[in-house]
Amino acid sequence: MKKLSYIIVLAMVAWGLQACNNRSKDSVDLAEDANSTSQDSSAFRTVPDMGVITGDNYNDADFAVQAADGGMAEEQLGTIASTKAQDQRVKDFGQMMVTDHGKANAELMEIAKQKNIVLPTTISREHSKHMADLNTKTGADFDKEYMDMMVKDHKKTVQLFETAEEHAEDADIKSFAAKTLPTLKQHLQSADSINNSLNQ
Q1: Which domains does the chain have, with CATH numbers?
Q2: How many CA atoms lie within 13 A of 59 on its CB side?
Protein backbone atom coordinates (compact mmCIF):
# COMPACT_ATOMS: atom_id res chain seq x y z
CA MET A 1 0.00 0.00 0.00
CA LYS A 2 2.85 2.34 0.88
CA LYS A 3 4.48 1.55 -2.46
CA LEU A 4 1.24 2.36 -4.31
CA SER A 5 0.91 5.68 -2.46
CA TYR A 6 4.50 6.50 -3.31
CA ILE A 7 3.87 5.81 -7.01
CA ILE A 8 0.74 8.00 -6.96
CA VAL A 9 2.68 10.87 -5.34
CA LEU A 10 5.46 10.54 -7.93
CA ALA A 11 2.90 10.58 -10.74
CA MET A 12 1.26 13.72 -9.30
CA VAL A 13 4.63 15.47 -8.98
CA ALA A 14 5.49 14.57 -12.59
CA TRP A 15 2.08 15.83 -13.76
CA GLY A 16 2.58 19.06 -11.79
CA LEU A 17 6.01 19.63 -13.32
CA GLN A 18 4.60 19.02 -16.80
CA ALA A 19 1.77 21.48 -16.15
CA CYS A 20 4.23 24.10 -14.94
CA ASN A 21 6.37 23.50 -18.01
CA ASN A 22 3.37 24.02 -20.31
CA ARG A 23 2.46 27.26 -18.51
CA SER A 24 5.98 28.57 -19.08
CA LYS A 25 5.65 28.19 -22.85
CA ASP A 26 4.26 31.05 -24.91
CA SER A 27 2.19 30.79 -28.08
CA VAL A 28 5.30 30.74 -30.29
CA ASP A 29 6.78 27.81 -28.33
CA LEU A 30 3.50 25.91 -28.58
CA ALA A 31 3.26 26.51 -32.34
CA GLU A 32 6.84 25.27 -32.81
CA ASP A 33 6.07 22.18 -30.70
CA ALA A 34 2.95 21.44 -32.77
CA ASN A 35 4.84 21.82 -36.03
CA SER A 36 7.73 19.66 -34.84
CA THR A 37 5.40 16.75 -34.05
CA SER A 38 3.60 17.01 -37.39
CA GLN A 39 6.79 16.99 -39.47
CA ASP A 40 9.68 14.62 -39.90
CA SER A 41 11.92 15.35 -36.92
CA SER A 42 15.07 15.34 -39.04
CA ALA A 43 13.63 18.13 -41.19
CA PHE A 44 12.55 20.31 -38.30
CA ARG A 45 15.14 22.21 -36.32
CA THR A 46 13.83 24.31 -33.47
CA VAL A 47 15.26 27.81 -33.41
CA PRO A 48 15.82 29.46 -30.00
CA ASP A 49 13.44 32.29 -29.03
CA MET A 50 14.01 35.29 -31.25
CA GLY A 51 17.02 33.56 -32.85
CA VAL A 52 17.52 34.47 -36.48
CA ILE A 53 16.98 31.61 -38.93
CA THR A 54 19.93 31.10 -41.25
CA GLY A 55 20.44 28.88 -44.27
CA ASP A 56 21.91 26.19 -42.01
CA ASN A 57 18.84 25.92 -39.75
CA TYR A 58 16.09 27.07 -42.10
CA ASN A 59 12.77 25.35 -42.63
CA ASP A 60 9.43 26.69 -43.83
CA ALA A 61 7.50 26.09 -40.58
CA ASP A 62 10.09 27.93 -38.48
CA PHE A 63 9.99 30.83 -40.91
CA ALA A 64 6.19 31.00 -40.81
CA VAL A 65 6.11 30.96 -36.99
CA GLN A 66 8.74 33.70 -36.65
CA ALA A 67 7.20 35.80 -39.43
CA ALA A 68 3.77 35.56 -37.79
CA ASP A 69 5.15 36.48 -34.37
CA GLY A 70 7.05 39.45 -35.75
CA GLY A 71 4.13 40.57 -37.90
CA MET A 72 1.66 40.49 -35.01
CA ALA A 73 4.10 42.41 -32.83
CA GLU A 74 4.63 45.11 -35.49
CA GLU A 75 0.88 45.47 -35.93
CA GLN A 76 0.22 45.82 -32.19
CA LEU A 77 3.16 48.17 -31.63
CA GLY A 78 2.00 50.21 -34.62
CA THR A 79 -1.45 50.59 -33.07
CA ILE A 80 0.14 51.97 -29.90
CA ALA A 81 2.44 54.31 -31.84
CA SER A 82 -0.34 55.64 -34.07
CA THR A 83 -2.14 56.99 -31.00
CA LYS A 84 0.61 57.56 -28.44
CA ALA A 85 3.45 59.03 -30.50
CA GLN A 86 4.21 62.74 -30.25
CA ASP A 87 5.88 63.21 -33.66
CA GLN A 88 3.48 62.98 -36.62
CA ARG A 89 6.03 61.00 -38.65
CA VAL A 90 6.11 58.37 -35.91
CA LYS A 91 2.30 58.27 -35.79
CA ASP A 92 2.19 57.80 -39.57
CA PHE A 93 4.85 55.10 -39.43
CA GLY A 94 2.86 53.27 -36.77
CA GLN A 95 -0.26 53.38 -38.94
CA MET A 96 1.76 52.05 -41.88
CA MET A 97 2.83 49.10 -39.67
CA VAL A 98 -0.81 48.35 -38.85
CA THR A 99 -1.83 48.44 -42.51
CA ASP A 100 1.12 46.65 -44.12
CA HIS A 101 1.76 44.01 -41.47
CA GLY A 102 -1.95 43.37 -41.05
CA LYS A 103 -2.19 42.59 -44.75
CA ALA A 104 0.93 40.38 -44.73
CA ASN A 105 -0.25 38.56 -41.58
CA ALA A 106 -3.60 37.73 -43.19
CA GLU A 107 -1.84 36.36 -46.28
CA LEU A 108 0.56 34.27 -44.19
CA MET A 109 -2.34 32.82 -42.20
CA GLU A 110 -3.98 31.64 -45.43
CA ILE A 111 -0.77 30.01 -46.64
CA ALA A 112 -0.16 28.34 -43.26
CA LYS A 113 -3.71 26.96 -43.26
CA GLN A 114 -3.15 25.39 -46.69
CA LYS A 115 0.19 23.89 -45.61
CA ASN A 116 -1.01 22.66 -42.19
CA ILE A 117 1.50 24.89 -40.40
CA VAL A 118 0.48 25.97 -36.90
CA LEU A 119 1.03 29.68 -36.25
CA PRO A 120 1.14 31.44 -32.87
CA THR A 121 -2.10 33.11 -31.82
CA THR A 122 -0.41 35.69 -29.58
CA ILE A 123 2.98 37.37 -29.61
CA SER A 124 6.00 35.82 -27.93
CA ARG A 125 6.98 36.51 -24.34
CA GLU A 126 9.93 38.58 -25.54
CA HIS A 127 7.78 40.79 -27.78
CA SER A 128 5.28 41.20 -24.92
CA LYS A 129 8.07 42.43 -22.66
CA HIS A 130 9.24 44.93 -25.29
CA MET A 131 5.67 46.19 -25.65
CA ALA A 132 5.26 46.58 -21.89
CA ASP A 133 8.56 48.46 -21.65
CA LEU A 134 7.59 50.75 -24.53
CA ASN A 135 4.22 51.52 -22.90
CA THR A 136 6.03 53.05 -19.90
CA LYS A 137 7.49 55.76 -22.18
CA THR A 138 5.79 59.02 -23.14
CA GLY A 139 6.41 61.96 -25.47
CA ALA A 140 9.77 62.22 -27.21
CA ASP A 141 11.13 59.30 -25.16
CA PHE A 142 8.37 57.07 -26.56
CA ASP A 143 9.07 58.19 -30.12
CA LYS A 144 12.81 57.49 -29.84
CA GLU A 145 12.33 54.12 -28.15
CA TYR A 146 9.72 53.00 -30.68
CA MET A 147 11.72 54.03 -33.75
CA ASP A 148 14.91 52.50 -32.37
CA MET A 149 12.95 49.28 -31.82
CA MET A 150 11.58 49.45 -35.37
CA VAL A 151 15.07 49.73 -36.88
CA LYS A 152 16.34 46.73 -34.89
CA ASP A 153 13.22 44.64 -35.53
CA HIS A 154 13.16 45.32 -39.27
CA LYS A 155 16.84 44.47 -39.68
CA LYS A 156 16.06 41.04 -38.20
CA THR A 157 12.88 40.71 -40.26
CA VAL A 158 14.58 41.61 -43.55
CA GLN A 159 17.26 39.01 -42.81
CA LEU A 160 14.56 36.43 -41.98
CA PHE A 161 12.67 37.06 -45.24
CA GLU A 162 15.86 37.10 -47.33
CA THR A 163 16.72 33.68 -45.92
CA ALA A 164 13.24 32.40 -46.75
CA GLU A 165 13.39 33.84 -50.27
CA GLU A 166 16.62 31.91 -50.84
CA HIS A 167 15.95 28.67 -48.95
CA ALA A 168 12.18 28.09 -48.84
CA GLU A 169 11.19 24.68 -50.19
CA ASP A 170 7.51 25.50 -50.61
CA ALA A 171 6.78 27.64 -53.68
CA ASP A 172 4.01 29.64 -51.97
CA ILE A 173 6.17 30.47 -48.98
CA LYS A 174 9.08 31.44 -51.23
CA SER A 175 6.73 33.67 -53.24
CA PHE A 176 5.30 35.25 -50.07
CA ALA A 177 8.80 36.05 -48.77
CA ALA A 178 9.91 37.51 -52.12
CA LYS A 179 6.75 39.59 -52.50
CA THR A 180 6.86 40.96 -48.93
CA LEU A 181 10.59 41.71 -48.82
CA PRO A 182 10.55 45.03 -50.76
CA THR A 183 7.91 46.43 -48.35
CA LEU A 184 9.99 45.35 -45.34
CA LYS A 185 13.09 46.99 -46.81
CA GLN A 186 11.10 50.18 -47.34
CA HIS A 187 9.95 50.00 -43.71
CA LEU A 188 13.56 49.66 -42.59
CA GLN A 189 14.66 52.62 -44.71
CA SER A 190 11.84 54.80 -43.35
CA ALA A 191 12.47 53.70 -39.76
CA ASP A 192 16.18 54.43 -40.07
CA SER A 193 15.51 57.88 -41.53
CA ILE A 194 12.99 58.87 -38.82
CA ASN A 195 15.17 57.39 -36.09
CA ASN A 196 18.22 59.37 -37.24
CA SER A 197 16.27 62.63 -37.34
CA LEU A 198 14.87 62.06 -33.83
CA ASN A 199 18.37 61.52 -32.44
CA GLN A 200 19.96 64.63 -33.97
Answers
A1: 26-198 (1.20.1260.10)
A2: 16
